[in-house]
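Might I ask for a little of your time on a matter of protein folding? The record follows directly beneath this note:
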Amino acid sequence: MNNDVLPTTNNQTSSDILPTSKILTRQINYYLKSIRIEVSQKTIDLYTHVLYRFADFVKHDVITPSDIRMYLAYLQESGLKPHSIHAHYRSLRTYFKWMVNEDVYKESEYPMKHVKPPRLPKYVIKIFSVEELQDILLACSGRCFRDVRNRAMVLILLDTGIRLAELAGLKMSDINSEGDLLTVYGKGAKERSVRIGYETQKALTKYIMLRGDSPGILWESVSRTPLTISGVQSDVRKLCARAGIKDGKRGPHRFRHTAAKSFVKNGGNVYVLQVMLGHADQQTTRQYCSSIGIDDVIEEHEKFSPVDRMKIK
């Protein structure tokens, strides 16, 4: 086992988060060092926070299912939100599975086996209405560089459902020769391809004609410097504000929600949607489809009624 200095986050020192359990501490160190080349720094920071907080709570080495349950209950009593508690559960599950796979723990010692995940509240994910989307596109219908660029960005977000960071990270080399496929890099640097439709291709081509086809980051500012993630986010939010969209609905992530619902409503397969959005977990994809309501069910049933389609005479 590696006995290196503990990783720290949020300006904490190792003495602030050092648990009394020395063996568990060394195991956590070993795990975090070993996965560093496999996951992003953001994920490392999350695992560091969760695992050392857990170790400081249990204060012993032999972990049981009761320890996990007591820890999750402690997080709930501390006022942590359900989704944050679920993130702790997933991080612990990943850690203990890894330790079993690496033969650090025996299969019989896996403490998460009978621990059920905490319940998550069900909520409907908000999306843009057709009228709001029309207002957004109208707000960037001009011929200036900013409008042409913003229209291409918005249509790509709406057509593919890619994340803000994935959009901002696009390079000229990520566009295929036909102009209909984009290579994006998701969480954990996972690569996938997404298709853009004809109208989106036209908008992107128009932007590139103004930008020029020189290599580098795809999105540029008016002064022709590369746009950062915060720059892309700011421009999308400003565009939505110009379109009269309320403040709480201006985030780029709402385009992702809207794309997911539209894809399924238009007949797209939810498993294909999972790949398109870059989700590792099908449950996450289904949450994006939770905004499909009774009006959508009625509309679809009118088109696909099992009995009507049998054409009974």
Notes: Confidence is low (pLDDT under 50) at residues 1-19. The CA atoms of residues 164 and 252 lie 6 Å apart.
